[in-house]
Amino acid sequence: MALTTELLSTLDSTEEPLTKRLRIANNAFHSIELPVFNKEAILLQWFSKIGSELDTPDIWDTLNACLTSQHMKEIKQNEIQQDILTYIVKAIRKRLKQQLNDDLKLSVVHCAISILRNEIFQQYFRYDVRRYCAFVATVLSNIDDLNELVNITNGNLLFDKKIAIKTDYSKYFLSHTFMAVIAVLLKLYDSKLFDGCIKLVQRTIFPFNTNDFEKYLDSIFEVNDNSEVLESNNLIVILQDLYKSDTANAKLGFKLIFTAFWVSRKSQTVHIYQFFVLLLQLIGFKINAKFNTNLPSRDLEYDLNKSLSILANIFEVISLENVTMVGKINEITFNDCVKFVTNSIMRLQSQPSFSSLKIFQYVILIDPLIIDSSIGELIAFITLSKKEADLQICYSNLMVGLFEMYMKLHRVHKFSSELLRTLKNTLRGQLEEKQPDFNFQQGICKDKHLETVSSVREMFPESVVAYFHRCIILQSSKQVISIMRTLVNQLEDIVDNLKHCADDQHQILYIQIVSDLTCQFLSAVRIAEHTTTEITVNKFLKDMEDLKGILAKFGTTLLNMEHNHSLMFSFLHICYVWAEVAILLMYYAPIDNINLKGTTSTDNSASNITYLHSYLTAEQWSLVSQRIKNFGEQPCKYILQKLIIQKLRAMVLFESEFDDGIETAVVSNFSSNLETTWDIVLTEQFTSATIVPKMENGQLVQLAELLMSDILKNTNYNMLKRRSIMDCRDLQTAVFYVCLSKINSLFKKKRKHDDQSTVKPLSTKIFKHIDLDLFIRSEQVNLETIAELFADVDTVKGLQIDDERFCTYLEVLRYVPVCFLSHDVQITFFLYLLSICIDLNDTKRSHDMCLKKCEEYLIGLVENITSPNIFTCMSSDILISRIMLNTDRYKEILNFAINKALKHTETIETFKQAVKLLANNLNDEKYFEMCIVTLHIINKAGKYKVSEESKKCLRKYKIKLCKNLVEHLLKDDNIEDAKIEAFVLTLQKYLLKDNNDNLSKLASKLKLYIDFTVNNLNNKNTEGCLLLFQLVLRYRSKLENVPEDFILRAWKACKDIHTASNQHNDVFSKTVPLIFEHVSNDEFPAILNDALQSATNTLKVQQLEDFRNQLKIWSYLLNSSLNTNKQKTLHVYLQLLLQNSVLYLISNRNQEFDEVIVKLLVSIIENKQISQTPNMIDNYFQTIKIITCREYDQQTFPVAFENSMSVMEALIKHRKVLLIDRLPTYLLHLRLIFKHLCTKSNVDQNLEPTEISVIADCTFRFERLVKSICSLKKDMARIAPYLIADILKQFEKITFYSEVKTHLTNGLYHLIDLCDSHAVSYLLRVLSTASTELFKNAHRHYTKYYKFTGRV
Questions:
Q1: Is the separation of the CB atoms in 637 and 631 below 8 Å?
Q2: pLDDT in tens, 863-914
Q3: Which of 71, 131, 358, 671 sits at 20 to 30 Å (Cα–Cα) from 212?
Q4: In Å, how far are 49, 64, 65, 687 from 42, measured between CA atoms?
Q5: What's the pLDDT score for residue 232?
Q6: DSSP for 392-406, written as a single string
Q7: Rounded distance between C-alpha atoms, residue 490 and residue 492, angstroms
Q8: Per-residue pLDDT tens over the stretch 804-818
Q9: Rounded Cα distance, 706 and 700, in Å
Q10: What is the DSSP string of 1039-1069?
Q11: Which DSSP state fits 439?
């Protein structure tokens, strides 16, 4: 006792630090030698007490360590008193109910979870279930980690069998824990968490081993005559209380309980039906008129919207389970009950809500025939009311669902007829109002003055129209003709009564509906295809003729009435679509002599469209045109313009020749209405191809400006990629001109206090010389005049422009294919951009973004320009100086420009001034750099196909530049980064020509340059240093003063360069092999060892880029020409590198490293100079196994598969002879890859289309590998049956995607081709029954379609 008191006093002493006291308590808890009675209980109580007082996570972490320790598991139940357990549980609950920081809260939660897992506490909770439920609720409410919640709810930690055997545990769960579960779901909703909560509810409320709730349901519905009504179930009380809470809690709670009951009683559909009816009553529906229940009533305030949202969740659960509900209640089936519910919803609500629309969608999934029986009432309920944006989406989904339902039932015609009939009666007010089958507890007052839809597109959104098109395409010809006849009849009835409904907005809306549906139908119908029978075409033609007569009456009636925009648009829309179908029929239909058009007329006016629309006279169409011009709105003007263009298109198709005045009139009409109808160009390719090229230049520019305005307004640059614009060169040129004019306008603004003598920007002067007519039509520009402007440029001071607008205009130009326009346009654009750089050079800091954009365009132009080069427009020295002095990326621009200039004979002569300029200004850093660039290009120019005169000219240029460079280099002994490359180029030139004077002068400085390069390597001089190394290695015999250790120093420098920068791979790839080839046999192992150590070190620290760079060195090494001794040395170090790589693969998992290592393996396998040892081949197979056997998801598996297959393919392709000796091992790894491929190709994976495509590509690669293996016929013939058995076994076990199975079947055919009759007989004997049938089918198919029989 004294020891206990002393221990507690030590622990409670505030003189000692808390960490020390916790360490003492922890050691005391785990000590088996401390003679303190009940020390574990005392210490646990102390932990809980001090944890309640101090906000320190360390206390709870220590307590958690004690609770989860092995020592705690060995403690007996009687060693800890009940009151101490109660104290700990209360302390934790009290702490969790307080406001805690995240770390402290997490520590307390972990302690609570450990308590739930502890066997002593489980025994304690067994006798106090109420406290257990309250404790669980507190713990769940404080867990913020979704994964932890999912693991807890899906596991067996909560409410296990020890708790479940106690009475009233479900009552306490409902009263204490259930609301906490709902709160957790609302906070962190997830499908896996929801499934876990369902298991929790099912385990506690609806256990499998009891049927108390089923007896309760039977008693309510009086299934047994002698049964007495049981006492009110706790669940019903909770559900009633749940309804009184907020909507979110109620929705989720009802869904959770109904789903749990469904999962536990899935086979007892009668009880599920009873529970469903009971829930209807609980949420406020009066069901006693149909069902007699004994459920005690309770006064609640019911809300229809809340009830419907709960009901929508219940229907969602039912719709997701493919279960047929059997059984009746009072002779009413489940489907009848659902029908009563849907009818009641439509009759109780004035307009659809989000929940009611969702309910109808779920009912369609449950049984489409339920909706079919009351489709008319449903259409009237959902279609005409005004809907908000979120409700509109739900409405669209429901309408698509209805069309999908009737398409599957093959009743689209019935639905279309019922749709039109219902809308007609509803808009006329002739729809009968019915009483609901189930009334609602609260009285419902329907609002009869609701706002209806104002347009057809609200009633039939784009998604609905698109699906309607699909329905028409997939319908049989009989159904199509029936729908066509229905629409024609409805349209005829409308036209007959048109005069009487001109002022009725509801009737006008109905006319618009029928008109729109007719147009959508005609747009979707595929009657002009050769697969359509002649009888169907004739029936459709009859309907087209009838529709033509109706249109005549429609148009005549409209002209005799006051102008109505809606009616006129409906009429013109039908006219246009009717004519489109007529054109298709006359051009493509399989029946000859179809004539739905009129004849040509002497009236060439644009409004005369009687050629197609002969049902009205030319005078009537002229009147229509006049009315629309005077009173019409934008849609009418637009459709009329399309009708006029349609006439011209038809005449081009069907008439060999016609009066030019017709085309002129159409072009004139289109040009005069550009502001309202310009965007026809975007949709009508005929317009851009036929009409636009004949427009006047001013109108073409106006069209381009309208197009530009729309692009800038909507930031839709992709509009310029449309086919109609891409194929219209005139429009592209006009857009290009408009962009230049808008850019030019940014430079024309006068600044404050400017006078008339202000210097004009160069870009403004250039644009002034671009003639509009010549530019657009001929794409020609006076380049000589523009070039003269660059000769003498005045500096513009302080020029400011709008950077944002400038960049926007340049972005538009990026979508104009300038490189496909004329040579003049390309050169003009280049010079214009260069002039902008010159104009903004003075204020480049404030216009940095604009200049960067301009330089990007200049590089793109000069690289892709189709003309010979830019030096044809002006003197080369002027152009080079302007580019160098006014751009930052002059080196890239001039590199492309000079490269192109020196490829063509006609421009090599003109480059003389440029060479002179560069050679005479070497003191300037920029000119010095460009001199080196030019020398590089001249060195390459010897390979170009140019005349001998041009080659002589190039040699003169080279001599001139080298001579001046030598003089510049010999001025002083200072070595700079920029001079290294120049030194190499000049030394190389004189080494080839053996010019002793200059050669000796340069060679005397060689040692200085070598010392400088190996000691002062950096990113700026990398290329020069590498070139110097190459030169010295190649001409070492001709050079003196080369240090003996030069090669080793060069190697160290190259290795460091490559790990630091990755910009000079081309030069580096040539330098490293030279080092390996020229190094002595004695020094070669040292270099290899250094390379091995570098690669191994980067692998250990997992530096991917450095490791990739190191392996590049090894790849260059493999491609080097090495002598026999070096080959042997290389072989030893390659084995060490392979071993290190495989060891890394075993201990680490990184697909990027896998890919790099596999590339190394493939390069070694492909190199014929490297002999393969058994250890190396073992490393290959081990790599394949390691990569293949890892766990991968659907995204990472294709990468791993590709890595494994790369090694397998390389072995079969490059090491075939060696592989024959190891064929069983090879096939074992092939089988391993195939097994994992099949697992990932299973339809149970529920892959996306893109993922299926990727897996199919993998399977195709596997098929190709099998084909390669089958080329080893002699060795594979005896093994092929076993591989066939493997494939058939997978076919038997797994359902593959069709894209995958195709390639696997092809691989099977390759193997069957190796089997003789004995192998086939063997397979038929040993295969399983299912595999035998599969093999018979595959063999029969192979023999019939794939086997080569010798016939061609």
A1: no
A2: 876 655 677 778 888 888 888 888 888 888 888 888 888 887 777 877 888 8
A3: 131
A4: 10, 15, 16, 93
A5: 47
A6: HHHHHHHHHHHHHHH
A7: 5
A8: 898 999 888 888 888
A9: 10
A10: -SS--TTHHHHHHHHHHHHHHH--S-HHHHH
A11: E
